[in-house]
Every structure is written in structure tokens, then in C-alpha cells.
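Go through this one:
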Amino acid sequence: MTKRFRRGLVVAKFAPLHKGHEFLLRRALEECDELFAISYSKPELEGCPALKREGWMSGLFPTVHHLALTDARLRELAKPGEVPLELPHNDGEVTAHRRFCGLVCLRTFGVTVDAVFTSEDYGDGFAEELSRCFREHHASCPNVVHVCVDRERRSVPISASRIRQDVHAHRDWLSPEVYGSFVKRVCLLGGESTGKSTLAESLAKEFGTAHVAEYGREIWDAKAGTLAFEDMRHIAGEQIRREESALMQSNRWLFCDTSPLTTLFYSHHMFGKADPELGRLAERRYDLTILCMPDFPFVQDGTRQPEGFRDLQHQWYL
């Protein structure tokens, strides 16, 4: 079935990308063979940097040609000998913003567009300025059409500014992939029998959220305590994968029982070495890290090292 437009454009801050944006993007995809999207903000808005916007868009709309722009990114994209474009300030003159978007289409995407999709009254003026900008480079370029989608916000009655006031209170307006990036990750570290697993479960229950169990213990039990060197990198990677998956089912906080740092310790202890990739994974950052002290009676469950081992492990963590 032939679509109404060959190429369409959506421009937004996506700060954050919410279900109103999704409604707009889906409508544009229905009407265009190809869809291009530009997101930028100068200054950046808290919690919504370019890297996050890239992740949101690639996860939810992988077929959209999206650029999450910063001044640094524009310098990277500039061709040799070309003066890089510069982001207009959020409070900048409206024509500067519209021409900037037109130049990004021409110089970075290498295209003109047939339609621009917005949910705003300014859309007609935006389309007119895009048309003028394109004609300066392609004299026969037709007028860009403005397609206004859900201007009254009846389908999705929300705004990004309202969400930014309290992301957690408005989480229903965000897809899990987006909301999960605002969840704070808490890592609990500690030697054997220091209570971190019990604490992770208890904190998750107290705060009404999820926790991630120690995958290394799971695979240790499954293999009856016989691990190979190659298992170490797999354990760390799977621990991270489970954390990322759990973020989307979490509420404000995610409590993580150990981290790849623990796997790095055991790799050195058991094999005297570590895979370089495991070393990289062990540098994973958390919003809060809690180190459990070895300050209450040691419980030997039949799989743990001798009691003195947990003191050695604690010192290594420190």
C-alpha cells in the first residue's frame, strides 16, 4: 500500500520520550516510507542526556533514522572542511531552531522531507521555514506539509514537563524501557555469609520493587561447584543482563545482590587470572553501593570457603 509521504520528520526533546511522543511517531510511520527524527536540548534536561535518548529510540523505534544531537556530536558529524552546525539554545529565536533542523536534514541526513509531524500550533510555520531552507539548496523542492497530530492531547493527555516534575508518579505515561532508565540501581557487596542476599530481598520487599539474585551462586549450584574459567565472563554478562531486564519491572529502586566485581574476585581467586572483558564489566557503576561487614557469626552452608576467607574478600572489596 502506497503511503502518503516519502519522507517525514519529527523533532522533539524527548525529555523524556513518553507515550505522547510514541503516538506521534507511530502516526508518522503509518504515513511515511521513511521517518527521520531529531532530538536535542541546549542545555540538556536532567535525566535525559543524548545517550539515553538514543537508547530509548533505538529500542522502541528501530526503523526511525534518529539523531540525538549535542554540540560535540555535531562536530563529529561535520564533513572535512565544513563548519560544524551548533545547537540553538532552548530560548533561542524560533527561526534559528527551524533552520537548524532543515540544515541537519540536508547536511547530516542528506535528505529533504515531504512532511513534518507535530502536536503544536507552530507546526505550520515550521513547515514553511523548512520549505524555504530546502529551496535554497534544491530550487524545485515542493512545500513541506505540516501534519498536526492530537493537538488537544485527547489521545495522550500528558507533557514531558509534567513528567519531569516527578518521573515516578507519572511512570504510566512511559514505556518500561524508558522508565527503567530512571530507576536507581543499588548494589550489595560483601564476603560470604555477610547477609547481602537476605538484605537485597528484604529491601526489595520494603520498597515494593524488584531485586536481582546472585547468578553466580545459581550456576555454582547447577554445576555442583565445578566452574571453568570461561564461566566467569558468562556469569558477569548474565548478571548484567538480568539487572537490565529487572529495571523494567522495578519501582524507583532495583536492589542487586553482588555485581560483576564479585565475579572478578572469584576469577582471580580460582584461576589466578581474569578475562579482560570481565575486567571491563567489573567497572559497572551503580547509584549506590553497600558493602556488608563480616561482623556477625559465619554460617557454613556446605558450599562456602573457610571463615577466614570472607575477611580476605572484604579487604579486597575495600
About this structure: The first strand starts at residue 5 and ends at 12. The radius of gyration is 25 Å. Residues 229-247 form the longest helix (19 residues).
